[in-house]
Amino acid sequence: MQYHVKDLSLADVGRDRIEWAEKDMPVLRSIRERFSREKPFQGMRIGACLHVTTETANLVLTLKEGGAEVFLAASNPLSTQDDVAAALVKYFGIHVFAVKGEDTQTYYSHLRAVIESRPNIVIDDGADLISTIHKEYPSLAEEILGGMEETTTGVIRLKAMARDKVLRFPIIAVNDAYTKHMFDNRYGTGQSTIDAILRATNRLLAGSYFVVAGYGWCGKGVAQRARGMGAIVVVTEVDPIKALEARMDGFLVMPMREAAKIGDFFVTVTGNTSVIREEHIRLMKDGAIISNSGHFNVEIDIQALERLSKSKRRIREYVEEYTLEDGRRIYLLAEGRLVNLAAAEGHPASVMDMSFANQALSAEYILKNHSNLQKDVYKVPDEIDRQVAMLKLKAMGIQIDELTPDQIRYLSSWEHGT
């Protein structure tokens, strides 16, 4: 066994938590049962860079049941659940390289440990694993059949690589599956982000001004959940269509320079850099709480916050108090890293059930179809997306209608009019 985890004595707690999550992941369980019979990945190595959580554990165990040898690194220095990492090593034989709070050097050494296992298929969350392969292991890239990417941020990076003709193997953009982004991003990020802010601060949201930067699927989820807690929600956007949608959904919409003056809570979910900058920090009121739920810790200009501050202290776990020169205090959560995994447990298992079902089935698709795919970024095949949705409905005990033969003929004909 190759591994680097915090403490194997945590494994018993981790095993119980993995089992608890599995109870709420019936779609992935049904795929695991089939994989266990068919062993599609027999003799294959799968390298993954994902948040090491109870839900991820159930994905890698599904791949192992399918015959794969799995090597797993964390996709963010603060997202690892150390008890889960220990359980995967001690009880399930997964090669795990992840320690919560690891520094940047350790983070990349863990990625390299996964890469040096010479995986046949890779699964990424943010594209750090895939970009490191391309930068540091170009010859190994030629051996990889293909990979999957879990996040909006990662898909953006990989599409840029494909556009620049540097991508060396095909990628399935799991993030773009309807059963991923419409549910995981909206309901998962929405609930887990609010959960993390409440755990970190124990502050009341009702009646507060809650600023959401970005109105993609993640931003929609955060805004909806914050409104559900009684907050007055403000959305900031650069896309006129999304801004209009946010207004029609009943939210206040304004530039960040205006929102900065009134906000009590701020959450960035754009996938872009420097969303909250020095010019905005200078306008914030005493006690403003800022956080990020995007993948990388670049959305808040932390260096600007440091420059503007005369002192800094940790006042609560995951809460840093910055005192500005004029005495105003700004509170940064989870060091600006994705707050929902750093200060809480990430998405509920029931939504990750669909996301990771897409991952498992896309890995099987890569295995069977890699020779017919170009070095490009592909959407999840519609048949996989629909299969995941149908399996989820079945698990929920929900039945739906089917088209009648007459309806099928009607929809396929151009001859019927008024």
Automatic annotation (TrEMBL):
Gene, per the UniProt record: ahcY
What sequence ranges are listed for the domain S-adenosyl-L-homocysteine hydrolase NAD binding? 185-346
Q: Which cofactor does it need?
A: NAD(+)
Going by the UniProt record, its keywords in alphabetical order are: Cytoplasm, Hydrolase, NAD, One-carbon metabolism
Cofactor, free-text remark: Binds 1 NAD(+) per subunit.
What GO terms fall under cellular component here? cytosol
What EC number(s) has UniProt assigned to this enzyme? 3.13.2.1
Q: What InterPro entries does UniProt report for this protein, alphabetically?
A: Adenosylhomocyst_ase-like_sf, Adenosylhomocysteinase-like, Ado_hCys_hydrolase_NAD-bd, NAD(P)-bd_dom_sf, S-Ado-L-homoCys_hydrolase_CS
This protein is called Adenosylhomocysteinase
Which SUPFAM superfamilies does the entry link to? Formate/glycerate dehydrogenase catalytic domain-like, NAD(P)-binding Rossmann-fold domains
Record-annotated residues binding NAD(+)?
Answer: 151-153, 185, 214-221, 237, 272, 293-295, 340, 347
What pathway is this protein said to act in by its record?
Answer: Amino-acid biosynthesis; L-homocysteine biosynthesis; L-homocysteine from S-adenosyl-L-homocysteine: step 1/1
Q: Does the keyword NAD apply?
A: yes
Q: What does this protein do?
A: May play a key role in the regulation of the intracellular concentration of adenosylhomocysteine.
GO BP annotations, alphabetical order: L-homocysteine biosynthetic process; one-carbon metabolic process; S-adenosylmethionine cycle
